[in-house]
Amino acid sequence: MTRDTIETAVREGIPFAINMADGKSYEVREPYKIALGAARVVVLDDRDLPHILPMLTMTGISYLPKGNGAA
Asked: Angle CA(30)–CA(62)–CA(24) in degrees, nearest 5?
């Protein structure tokens, strides 16, 4: 997993989920909910609690539908 992949999704405004090696995933629906460091990423969840994720254990990202999913 590279920083460039995440930066592209954030820059393009594409909602995505970060998939981790332990099977967990963290949704990023707004650009202000993520901060990128050199080796770690901080993601704020729905309650604005931070999750510090090492890039080394990220397996990829999955794009999510835009919007809140309501029809």
From this structure: 90
